[in-house]
Amino acid sequence: MNNGGNLYRTYSATCIGVDVVRVTVEVSITSGVGIFLIGLPDNAVRESLLRVTTAMQRNGFSIPGRKTVVNMAPADIRKEGSGYDAAIAVAMLAASGQMFFPEPERYLIMGELSLDGRLRRVRGALPIAVNAAGMGYDRLVFPRESAQEASWAEGVRVFGVSDLQEMATVLAGGDGAAAFEVRRRIYSPSVGPGSCDFADVAGQPFARRGLEIAASGGHNVLLFGPPGSGKSLMSKCLASILPPMTREEAVETSMIYSVAGLIRDDSGLLTYRPFRSPHHTASTVAVVGGGVKAMPGEISLAHNGVLCLDEVAEFAPSTLDVLRQPLEDRRIVISRARYRISYPASFMLVASMNPCPCGYAGEDDGRCTCSPSAIHRYRARISGPLLDRIDLNINVKAVDSAMMSAFPRQESSRDIARRVAAAREVQNRRFTGEAVHTNSEMLPSHIRRYCVVGKKESAFLQKLMDSYRLSARGYVRVLKVARTIADMAGSDEIKIEHISEAVQYRFPENV
Fold first, then answer.
1. Residue 344: band (very low, low, confident or very high) from pLDDT cuts 50, 70, 90
2. pTM above threshold 0.85
3. CA distances in angstroms from 154 to 138, 178, 268, 335, 379, listed in the order given
4. Among residues 424, 441, 369, 363, which one has the least CA distance to residue 398?
5. Is pLDDT of 510 > 90?
6. What span, in angstroms and rounded, lies between the C-alpha atoms of 451 and 455?
7. Considering Cα of 260, then 287, then 395, then 492, what sign does the dihedral take?
8. How many CA atoms lie within 13 A of 34 on its CB side?
């Protein structure tokens, strides 16, 4: 909007989590002296005036010689980062009459300016682009490095520019702008870097079967056994049998990575399921998110993928217990004095632990040197409520020496992945039009609809509840796992054998 050459508005945006808020940049030039920036800016935004004015001068433009006020609205939201530089520069150029841009209300402008006028990558390009059409903008101008990322959004035209001069060309419209429009690529899922293969796992048929069930239904799993039995290797192999991400899942996950500034792929999109494996010294904030800038944590970076907690008993109990709510709600709400932000956190949890501090409790060779009280304290580091949210507890035995020396050919991840994909396809058809995608995500209404059991199965479940003192949550999770096993067997009905196998993983021997 231009008012007599001395007032101009451009539009930018900021991310609050993966939600987006429009930021209106207003520049007023009137009689007087000085340049002022208002609208609750942080230090990086305050410094933008020096970057903008220096870039303007070095590109042949002049600084307005009158009183210049730059306002960033809404004033009650703190503006952070350097992504507003481009919008401020455009507004100053237009308000001072050095340039004319015909349709500023159609554009969202993002970009950090270097002192020579070049544009640098910004965080949050993808969520901003995804939400732009809903805010009424159909043209986006981003730095070239961020434009490919933004181009995955639907319903908008994305222009990637390298410097202030190219941005002016795009905003001026006409035939010159078309040369900077970014064409989105065809989505093609990929395999994550460094994925392990189940062909490299010696033996462990019980654990392999349990992990296949977990992958088929998206269930949480705990691997429990002595050192060197293959727990860590099998945890890393889990990602290799999960089905490829759909385009919608890829965009959803990439939005989180975009906010965190972790999108570095040339395609601008994370095309494989994330596998996050934080060290046990990770802080609570690093795991769940938060901090000064409310960044996403490991549980959100694992969205639509796997969160691997190797040596889970070594994590701080307080850190583990904050996982309880995200495991149920599949979101994390971070509330602090200055903000309240929600991030998606729908992940598969795969954890592994030893049975005791020395690692050999329950083995027949008598190597365990731990006292009963030490074993109890060690296992108590994982609280009962957290264990109740884990669907499959897998007891991993030490590998037999004969198996290691012979090492017969094992089934590969590719073969297992085919069966997992078939089971997931059954669930996709079942949950068409629903808010869930896998059996592990089922809500009580879905349980009543899709987990109906016969009289014999109902009596069997009742007996199990009484014998094992299953909680209501435990009962529901047994049903979910049994539903997955039935899907894998091609059965529309949940039968006693499916329930029996589900219970084996709920209460394995020696756990």
1. very high
2. yes
3. 10, 18, 14, 31, 49
4. 363
5. no
6. 13
7. negative
8. 4
